[in-house]
Structures are given as C-alpha cells and as structure tokens.
Specification:
The complex is a heterodimer of chains A (283) and B (82). By secondary structure, chain A is of the alpha/beta class. Chain A has 2 domains: 175 residues, NAD(P)-binding Rossmann-like Domain (Rossmann fold), CATH 3.40.50; 87 residues, N-(1-d-carboxylethyl)-l-norvaline Dehydrogenase, domain 2. Chain A is globular. The relative contact order of chain A is 0.10. Chain B is an all-alpha fold and 82 residues long. Chain B has a single domain, classed as ACP-like (Non-ribosomal Peptide Synthetase Peptidyl Carrier Protein, Chain A, Orthogonal Bundle). Chain B is built from 3 helices and no strands. In chain B, helix 1 packs antiparallel against helix 2 and helix 1 crosses helix 3. The longest helix of chain B has 17 residues. Chain B is globular, with a radius of gyration of 12 Å. In chain B, 24% of the residues are buried. The chains are: A alpha/beta (283), B mainly alpha (82). At the A-B interface, helix 8 of A face helix 1 and helix 2 of B.
Chain lengths: 283, 82
C-alpha cells in the first residue's frame, strides 16, 4: 500500500493524519521534533475516542494509531506517493519545507499545499515539479468537515488534479473548485470578518461574547467569528491576514493590533488554553 | 463540594451569561457546541479521577449536570468495587 506523507503535526496536520488513517490509508506524520509528534499521536488517540460524542463515526483509537508512523524532518516523507503539507502559514517556513521535499521525494510524488491563503502557483515555483503541486484547503476539524477547496496552480497537470480528487474522495471529501487566488473563497471573506470582529473588541465596541452572540443569534451561524478564531488559532488568523495584506497590498486587510498582541502573548486560542475565551478545565 | 456543584461551576465559568440549573439540557441552549462536550469529558476525568469508558462517551451522559454527576457516581462505585 502506498504511504501518504503528512508534513506538520499541528492542528491541521493532526486532523489530516487522523482523517487519512480512519479511511484506511497508511500515513507518515512528520514534524521538526519528537515532542510535537508524541503530542500529536496523543491528540489523535483522544480525538478518535471522542469521535462519536462529537457526532462522528465510532472509531477504534488503537486501529487508527496503528496506521500512523512518525518521522522528524521533511525528508521523512521521502517514500510517500503524495504529501500533504500543513506547516505554519509563513512563506519562509513553507519554502524551506518544499525545497527539502523536492530534493528528497521521488519525481512522481504529488505535493498538496494545505493552505488558507498562500498562492499555489507561487509555492509550486519553489519546486522543480510545478505540474505536481496543487492546493487543498482543508477545514478544521478535518475529519468532521466534508467539503474542501481544491486549487490547481498555473502549471498543475490534469493528472495531478485527478490523483488529488481520487484521494479526497477516498477521504470522504467533496472538493469545490477554486482558481488560484490568494485566500481563495473561504479566507478572503472569513479572515476579514474575524479581523473586523477583533477590531470591535480592540476598540471596546463590544466584548467577544457579544460579537459571537450576534452571529449565532441573528445570522444562525453555529459559531461566532471569535470562537472560530480560537478554534483555528489566533496566531494562524494573524498570519493569514498578513499574507492577504502583503499579497494584495490593500489596506483593507490590515491586521488588527489585538491579534498581534494576543499572538505575542501566547493567547493562541483552544490549542493554548486561552484566546478570546479561556478553555482550561481548572475551576 | 458535590460533583454536581463542581460540574455546574465549570459550565457557568465557561458560559457566564447563561442561567443554568442541574437538570437543564445545556446542548439545547443554543450556544454550547459539540467541542464543549469534549472539554466536559476532559474536565470530568481530570477532576474526579475517572476514565470514562468508550461506551459511556454518549452525548446523553453530558446533557445535564445531573446526568454527568450520575455518570461520575457510576464510575466511582465501579472503582470502589474493583
């Protein structure tokens, strides 16, 4: 059986690895240190255990974990037939990962960029295989979200598009086609909404609870924008807004200073125990 | 402090704007999502030193403080027997 490489064991990488494993795929999960990988496996086991409670299928955590091996460094994915990269939304970090992958992986290996904002064509240009680089924007939590954005770059070949579609279908995902444009559909709208919601809190117009209550109660959204920010990660929101700001050179994407301060202070949302809300279980 | 009181305090701490009593279905209130169910599991396991078996990880066991408190009692008595 072919192995799928998953680069980055953060919130998204963990979700992608679990989704792949629970649909019968062999996975090698890669990150830069052992500690992050150990935590990732613990998170996957816990999430698999909670799956039914969260409205998902009933899963056997041991069976899922048995399909996932781990490796330190991007070269660990050398044998993968397809790699899904989920590292930080930071150009320099991603570029370094792609340079390594391009050097280490076989010539037929497809690189899937899981990004919420970075242009696929620009990312593909870092490699010597722009026809085999494609974007997929997975949503969080990955195993629970049935739809993704599928973004071919300028040079992406029809074969690469088909191989990626086939894998997504096997993962239980429906792909919505989007042309390569920074932020695609989802984040052009969502990141500006979250950023503006943060400005409301920053300016003291309303607190986070009130902002979210308007979105739930008035618009029928299951979660408000600031709860969503905590789920995605406040730091990730900031990076995504910064990517949009740099790419379009348009002041409408200027990041809210509160997002910067929260990121510096380690208030990254659910994953750090505190963001716009507090999640620690100590009373 | 009873397990029911501790559980209620935890829920009220997360949702200070809500008026919640022990028999209220918190998932029917409209602002509690399934992610909070996961937090409740972690809180109950950590606070009361129990491991909830997979077959008990059902949303019905976490709908009310009454139901969670009953679950804790069941698991604690199992522990005492064992």
């Amino acid at each position: 059986m072919t192995v799928i490489g998953v680069i980055g064991a953060g919130v998204m990488g963990v979700g992608v690895a679990q989704n792949l494993a629970q649909t019968g795929h062999e996975v090698v999960l890669v990150d830069k240190d052992e500690r992050i990988l150990a935590e990732a496996l613990a998170t996957i086991g816990r999430n698999a255990r909670m799956s039914r409670l969260m409205g998902g299928p009933s899963l056997d955590p041991d069976e899922i974990l048995s399909r996932i091996t781990t490796a330190v460094g991007a070269a660990g994915a050398a044998k993968a037939s397809l790699v899904i990269e989920n590292v930080t939304e930071n150009w320099d970090v991603k570029r370094e990962v792609y340079e390594t992958l391009d050097a280490e992986c076989g010539p037929d290996t497809v690189f899937v960029v899981n990004t919420s904002a970075i242009p696929i064509t620009k990312m593909a240009a870092v490699t010597g295989r722009p026809d085999k680089v494609i974007g997929v924007h997975f949503m969080n939590p990955v195993p629970a979200k049935p739809v993704v954005e599928l973004i071919p770059g300028f040079h992406t070949s029809p074969e690469t598009v088909q191989r990626t579609r086939d894998l997504l279908t096997a993962m239980g995902k429906k792909a919505v086609d989007v042309k390569d444009s920074c932020g695609f559909i989802s984040n052009r709208v969502l990141m500006l909404t979250v950023n503006e919601a943060a400005y409301l809190v920053h300016e003291g117009v309303a607190d986070a609870e009130s902002v979210d209550e308007v979105f739930r109660g008035c618009f029928g959204h299951p979660m408000g924008p600031l709860e969503t920010a905590d789920l995605i990660g406040v730091d990730t929101i900031l990076y995504s807004v910064e990517v949009l700001y740099e790419h379009y050179a348009d002041s409408k994407y200027r990041p809210c200073p509160l997002l910067k301060q929260m990121t510096d202070a380690g208030l990254h949302g659910r994953k750090s125990g505190r963001g716009f809300y507090t999640y620690t279980s100590q009373s | 402090m009873s397990s029911k009181t501790q559980i209620l305090d935890f829920i009220r701490g997360r949702y200070p704007q809500a008026e919640i009593d022990e028999s209220q279905d918190i998932f029917a209130l409209g602002f509690v999502n399934s992610l909070f169910a996961m937090e409740l599991v972690m809180f109950v396991e950590k606070t009361f030193g129990v491991t909830i078996p997979n077959e008990e990880l059902r949303i019905d066991n976490f709908r009310t403080a009454d139901a969670m408190s009953a679950l804790v009692s069941r698991l604690s008595s199992d522990l005492a027997v064992a």
